[in-house]
Design goal:
Elements: H1 2-13, H2 16-39, H3 46-51, H4 53-64, H5 69-73, H6 77-82, H7 87-109, H8 112-117, H9 124-150, H10 155-179, H11 185-190, H12 195-203, E1 206-208, H13 209-238, H14 241-268, H15 271-274, E2 275-277, H16 288-295, E3 301-305, H17 314-326, E4 330-334, E5 357-360, E6 365-368, E7 374-379, E8 384-390, H18 392-404, E9 409-415, H19 424-432, E10 435-441, E11 454-458, H20 466-477, E12 481-485, H21 494-501, E13 505-513, E14 526-527, E15 530-531, E16 549-550, E17 553-557, E18 566-572, E19 578-580, E20 596-597, E21 601-610, E22 613-620, H22 628-633, H23 637-649, E23 661-662, H24 672-703
Parallel strand pairs: 3-4, 9-10, 9-11, 11-12, 12-22
Antiparallel strand pairs: 1-2, 3-5, 5-6, 7-8, 8-23, 13-17, 13-19, 14-16, 15-18, 18-21, 19-20, 21-22
Helix pairs in contact: 1-7, 2-4, 2-7, 2-24, 4-9, 4-10, 7-9, 7-13, 9-10, 9-12, 9-13, 12-13, 13-14, 20-21
């Protein structure tokens, strides 16, 4: 086998064909690398690889067309049929020579992500997973090409047959959707040769054992088919044809059956154990929150997908499979609109987009339009809408909680004192928690509504009236719940402060400056407090997470509160923090005479049992933590803290408000000079160098 491998490898590199193949691959790789990665600054090399898949299919026939037909052309094929070496070893040797030729440009491609690393952060695990998937795809294409070369005596015919076979595999998904409107036995058979669907997972950030086995199976099968073609010709020379033919047919059926069973068997294993999310944001994995929700289900839920199983969105399909794997109570049904045109009319008067989802239990249902599964924003430079995130888990988990809840909670947002409007990002998460919100003015009510699960006080800047303060205090003393955001305000608010004084929470007059560089971001007013363990910080505490609190005030708490009252200081400064009592006239960040030494609490969580109820108060000291941009700086931790509190107050065992997973990426900053230098190297020098080397070697061999 080694001798065959060396012979074929020398043959490839002593001709122009191998160099032309590698030059074409490297040229188009360089073209897309220059345009996509260097020019547009995208750090994902998978974008380049996905762009050259079709090009690779076009040039692979150039490499494989001669691998078996060349022996026939030179009349050396009879030596194969009579050689003492097994046909299998000969075929493997030939195939490995093709694979080596293909892997050489791939090895060069492995250097491209290292180039990108000099210009910014590159997701290396995703990148090399994509390269691995591309290598498997190429290996399968080579095996198919080798088989096509074995069944004809003409190199051109072999190339055309290979191209047709690869094109059919590449377009199979579209062909199936064109010919069939529903899933059936024929479509399942045709899907066995759907090559493009199996490489997509590698390019989109997943490592799939199922797809890996699929490509390995293709390689083994087509090498086996090649072996059978050669074996049949070999045995026709030395023995009776009919016996060998009968044996070959039975063996082919057996091998194909084993391959089908192996792939079918691994297909039965839940994706949890066979598909691994390698994206930085873990876009395709469901969170621990969702897993807890699924584990606690005790009633059946059906997820109707408005698409056929073969035409469903692949990303959503992977998410749905994890929900089905997470609970035996989850059932997924596909309702192809072409077969069930009136199905959705039972659930909505409007039209649902294809691949939308209807979540239904015995209590109620909820529709999730396909477009709401992805977050988008408008690029005002081009006025195009760009997809910025994936929100399927957030929408599905929220819907499951909605259709299984016995009753839905309500949160009242207090207005009338120049409070902030809740930001869109936080409002979205509250809606996902299946909590209805209503803005009210205390002036219009004698008491807070009886159905208030909690109230939200968002940074008032004018004082409450004594009557308003009494209404809120009465609500809390009866076991009410409140989330309170206070903020720096030069106006005295004694009535408002009296509510929290009753719970041992007192606002320090001034802005906190942090003296420890480990506890602030960029400047000493942008605080990153220490997080302590509590009922609402368990997901943040001890996980290297941060809460971001720009321009926060300090809190002091009573050292000896009443016995029934518990005050947890959940967010605290370091011992080096100090308070600027007159921040509007501050002359320096440094500590001055008159500044009050810390440490300070920046957030507290107070609880007090009242009969069969329990008062709960989350008190935070800067309105800035509510900003979407501030929350994004700490990967959503600010809103996570607030939603943990909301979930705890409305007595959700697990918060079901899961934020969308961002597709946003930090683009690379590539200087124009580097763009031209690396573009020149990858687009011209490497491909042209390979091509010239091939021509020189070929010319020398012709001369001698």
């Amino acid at each position: 086998m080694l001798a065959i491998y060396k012979r074929e490898l020398r043959s490839i590199f002593h001709s122009v064909i191998g160099y032309v193949f590698m030059a074409v691959i490297m040229f188009f790789t360089g073209l897309y690398f220059m345009a996509v990665n260097l020019g547009s600054g995208y750090p994902y090399f998978a974008y380049t690889l996905s762009s050259i898949v079709f090009i690779t299919m076009l040039v692979i026939p150039i490499l494989t067309m001669r691998i078996m037909t060349e022996d026939k052309k030179q009349n050396t094929d009879q030596l194969l049929y009579t050689a003492p070496v097994s046909i299998g070893r000969i075929i493997i040797g030939k195939y490995l020579s093709l694979l080596t030729t293909f892997l050489i440009p791939l090895a060069l491609m492995c250097l491209y992500p290292l180039i990108l690393m000099t210009f910014g952060s590159v997701p290396m695990l995703e990148t090399y997973t994509a390269i691995f998937g591309f290598a498997l795809f190429g290996a399968a294409c080579l095996a198919i090409g080798m088989f096509m070369s074995s069944i004809t005596d003409n190199q051109i015919v072999a190339a055309i047959l290979t191209l047709v076979m690869l094109f059919i595999g590449y377009m199979m998904k579209g062909i199936i959707s064109l010919l069939f409107t529903s899933e059936n036995i024929v479509t399942k058979v045709l899907h066995c040769y759907d090559i493009s669907s199996h490489i997509t997972s590698y390019f989109s950030g997943s490592f799939s054992l199922k797809d890996t086995l699929y490509f390995i199976t293709l390689v083994v099968l087509f090498l086996f088919f090649t072996d059978q073609v050669v074996q049949k010709k070999r045995w026709s020379v030395v023995t009776k044809r009919i016996k060998r033919g009968a044996f070959s047919t039975g063996l082919i059926v057996a091998v194909v059956a084993v391959a089908v069973l192996a792939n079918y068997g691994i297909g039965l294993i839940p994706d949890t154990y066979t598909v691994f999310d390698v994206t930085k944001e873990k876009i395709y994995n469901i969170s621990d929150q969702t897993k807890e929700v699924l584990a606690s289900l005790d009633e059946d839920i059906t997820l109707y997908v408005t698409a056929s199983e073969s035409n469903q969105d692949e990303t959503i399909a992977r998410t749905l499979s994890q929900y089905a794997d997470g609970s035996s109570h989850i059932k997924i049904e596909y309702k192809d609109p072409s077969l069930y045109p009136n199905f959705t009319s039972t659930y909505t008067d409007g039209e649902l987009t294809g691949n939308s989802i209807i979540v239904e239990s015995g209590k109620r249902y909820k529709t999730i339009d396909y477009n709401s599964l992805f977050t988008t924003e408008i690029d005002y430079t081009t006025y195009q809408e760009n997809v910025t995130g994936y929100d399927a888990e957030g929408q599905l988990t929220s819907a499951i909680d909605y259709v299984t809840s016995d009753s839905l909670s309500k949160m009242y947002v207090i207005a009338g004192h120049n409070e902030l409007d809740l930001p869109a990002g936080l409002t979205t998460q509250i809606e996902k928690e299946n909590i209805e919100t209503e803005t009210i003015n205390l002036f219009d009510y004698d008491t807070l509504p009886a159905d208030a699960a909690c109230v939200f006080v968002a940074a008032p800047t004018t004082d409450y009236t004594a009557d308003d303060a009494d209404k809120l205090l009465t609500y809390l003393e009866a076991g009410g719940h409140a989330i309170v955001i206070n903020s720096w305000n030069e106006t005295d608010m004694p009535n408002f402060d009296s509510i929290w004084d009753a719970y041992g929470i007192h606002l320090a007059d001034g802005i906190v400056v942090e003296g420890d560089a480990d506890h602030y971001h960029q400047n000493p007013y942008y605080l990153l407090p220490e997080i302590s363990g509590s009922a609402i910080t368990s997901s943040l505490y001890g996980n290297n997470r941060y809460i971001f609190m720009p321009y926060a005030q300090g809190i002091t708490v009573d050292e000896t509160p009443r016995d029934t009252l518990t005050i947890d200081q959940i967010l605290t400064t370091s011992d080096k923090a100090y308070l600027k009592t007159d921040p509007t006239n501050m002359a320096t960040y440094e500590k001055e005479d008159g500044d009050i030494a810390g440490p300070f609490a920046l957030g507290v969580y107070a609880t007090e049992p009242i009969a069969d109820q329990e008062t709960k108060i989350l008190y935070l000291t800067t309105e800035n933590l509510l900003q979407d941009e501030v929350n994004a700086t700490v990967a959503g931790a600010n809103y996570e803290l607030l939603m943990n509190a909301v979930s705890n107050m409305v007595e959700h065992e697990v918060t079901v408000s899961i934020p969308a997973k961002s597709y946003q990426i930090d683009t690379l900053t590539v200087p124009r000079s580097s763009f031209y230098i690396w573009g020149l190297i990858t687009l011209f020098l490497l491909p042209v160098g390979l091509l010239i080397s091939g021509i020189v070697i070929w010319a020398k061999r012709r001369k001698y």
